[in-house]
Write a structure and sequence with these properties.
Chain A is an alpha+beta fold. A six-stranded antiparallel β-sheet of chain A has the order 1-7-8-4-3-5. In chain A, strands 2-6 form a two-stranded antiparallel ribbon. The structure holds a DNA duplex (30 and 30 nucleotides).
Amino acid sequence: MFQGETAITVDDKGRLAIPTAYRELVAGACANRLVITYNPFESGCLWLFPHAEWEKVRDQVNALPSVKAVHRALQMKLVGAAAMVEPDGAGRILLPGSQRTAAGIEKKAVLLGMGSKFELWSEQAHLAKIRQTIGEDEISDDMADLRL
Amino acid sequence: MFQGETAITVDDKGRLAIPTAYRELVAGACANRLVITYNPFESGCLWLFPHAEWEKVRDQVNALPSVKAVHRALQMKLVGAAAMVEPDGAGRILLPGSQRTAAGIEKKAVLLGMGSKFELWSEQAHLAKIRQTIGEDEISDDMADLRL
DNA sequence: TGAAATCGTGGGAATAAGTGGGAATAACTG
DNA sequence: CAGTTATTCCCACTTATTCCCACGATTTCA
């Protein structure tokens, strides 16, 4: 279970160091095999799945009937973009160049632990999201009963 | 099972190098016989099937009663356009010129691993698709239950 | 407070992959 | 049947990727 946000620097070659706090967790969860895809719902954000978790997601998404345009878009962004990466000797993973540019992730980025997966945001996109509070009109029925 | 996106350059002769990561997979899945057709649902996109997979698709499509116009259109784009290709010594396949122009695929293209088949997009068309996030109003009933 | 260890970052070299061009062969047309 | 055009195969070069090493900063423990 991943949680917390970490400031990350991506170097010119597109390498990104996994924070030490997560190293053991990742090694245990998926033998160091991570899968990078697009976040289909947000631009400027990539998803990082442990391989075991990814397989579940992939199978769910592939099972959707591809006659619907939305489903094809989802399959394209998730399965079509999925890149498997393994950390190097220094615990760094290599972001595929295409995804780095498409998500607009440059030197400064933010890694978020989101339960079963990570989210990688460009610093700007992340800051913009955080600054933006949740308005009352957005509250869903599921949220209404929360005790926070 | 193919997945991931790769930037591909198509040279003046219409040759396209299969990424090394897929070479063995393709050789195993279909003895290097690939079938190229149009993606009937998206313009600017071609489909590449391993031969074994193609036979299933072809038989399904051919079985549709051809009195309906939609069926004929599908049969035309899939069966009617199917070209079998095999990689050369350098692991490159030759795109038929007609399909290259029809799909608008020029020098810069993107190859997507989509489970049982590949998709070949022109760089522009692909980028446009990726940049476009999935909005809340587009979510289908099938998608609502996904746990991503 | 100092020293050691660990973590993060950058750069460089070896290797592999991708790309382009050219020549030989085959096919097609007049 | 000959000339021209298209296709295929092969070789070589350039570019990208991967692995490894080293330096600097920060933290931790004695």
